[in-house]
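Please think about what follows:
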Amino acid sequence: MAPTGYFAGPTPRVFGHRGAAALAPENTLASFALALALGADALELDVHGSRDGVIVVIHDNTLERTTDGYGAVQDQTWSALSQLDAGYHFTHDGRTFPFRGQGVRLPTLEAVLQRFPLAYCNIEVKQDDPPIVEEVVRIITRFNAEGRVLLAAEHDAIMQHIRRHAGDIVTSFAAEEVVEFLGRVQTSGFDGYRPQGRALQIPPHFGAIPLITAASVAAAHQCGLEVHAWTINQREEMEVLLALGVDGIMSDHPGLARMVVDEWTRTPRPA
């Protein structure tokens, strides 16, 4: 049976990591629009909750790195967060700030789903306390976006909360689940294994330990899983990972990833 929903469409997939984070302020509507214009198949984004329960698209739990604000996201009302300059610190050269004062704001999850109604979205839930999972799922459902969303979480507790409430929305793997899977690769211990997630979204290495190998990719495919590599910004590394058989490249440079993936898929391979 052909895959449907989030996993429909050809692989390898190109994910715009936080949009086109190397080219425009990360996790903003401008960055997401640019990623899609450059050929991304899906948008990767992160969410936290404001003090008054609005789901805000931002990676860090604090504001200093990407905005002109200060403090924890969850301590601020949406009214205050919506006034911040989300392009304030973005720079290509460390000296100039082309998006500063240009009206780039933090978006809500609702705004992203509404602005890009056909885009596939890889949404990582960052916040555990207070929990925001149920509100994230409510928003996705309200926009009838269940079939174009994958929910991700690094922490096992958040992922289990997601799976209790997500219904048919697909998920990736929490960190502990990745460790378990890779342990099974080492021991060939897949008898009776039933993965709860649908995609391993992992870096090529954890320190000196390789995570994406021919063996781990083959085992994932045997289990019906996709392997999405992050965050890959160099052509050479993209080509190595494609040769290993990964199903997706997450990149701050989605235009480069699109070009490399398209070249790869057009190049004949020995049978």
Summary: The chain has a mean pLDDT of 96. The first helix runs from residue 29 to 37. The CA atoms of residues 124 and 232 lie 18 Å apart. The chain has nine helices and eleven strands.
